[in-house]
Amino acid sequence: MMSYPCLVCAWPKLKEPPRSPSGGGSYEICPACGYQYGVDDDDRGITPEQWRRTWVQQGARWSSAGIKPPKGWKYQAGTAGQARQASPAAKKTIVLKPLPPKPKAAKKPAGKRAPARKNPG
Predict the structure, then answer these.
(1) Which residues partner with 14 through β-bridges?
(2) Closest Cα to residue 49, out of 111, 103, 104, 99?
(3) Residue 81, Cα to own-chain centre: how many angstroms?
(4) Strands 83-85 and 73-75, how do they pair?
(5) Separation of alpha carbons 112 and 110, rounded Å
(6) Cα-Cα-Cα-Cα dihedral of 2, 59, 52, 74, to 10°?
(7) Alpha-carbon gap, residue 53 to 33, rounded angstroms
(8) How far is residue 15 from each of residues 6, 22, 89, measured CA to CA in Å?
């Protein structure tokens, strides 16, 4: 069975290529970083680079609750941002929080209307 690297964290075991030859997303979720191709990029407008930056800033923790990480797995940004196994004593990690959705345009607050004038007549 062929496997593919994640474009965000270089996890080498995605089951499908992140993008199809026609350009569509695979909809596969990377168990390491949690990026979902075709949703996070196409629907939410978050590039792999933006996701990587946020994911690393938040501690680069393993994302999947259903798929356990390899023993001692830690993300280490190498020259190509590759995911590698490191000793458990590597870096301290912090809690990863999901990326917020894109902000919507702020609505202008409704102002008070002046009372209608009575027509004298």
Answers:
(1) 4
(2) 99
(3) 15
(4) antiparallel
(5) 7
(6) -30
(7) 11
(8) 10, 18, 30
pLDDT band per the 50, 70, 90 thresholds, residue 4: very high
* CA angle (59, 16, 33) in 5-degree steps: 5
65 CB-contact burial (10 Å; exposed 0-12 / middle 13-18 / buried 19+):
exposed
- Quote the strand ranges of the chain, DSSP E: 73-75, 83-85
Residue type, 28: E
How many contiguous H segments (helices) and E segments (strands) does the chain have? 1, 2
Instruction: Dig out the tokens for 51 from the structure.
Output: 């996701």
Cα distance between residue 29 and residue 4, in whole Å:
12
Per residue in 17-58, pLDDT tens?
A: 999 999 899 999 999 999 999 999 999 999 999 999 999 999
The pTM for the full model equals 0.63
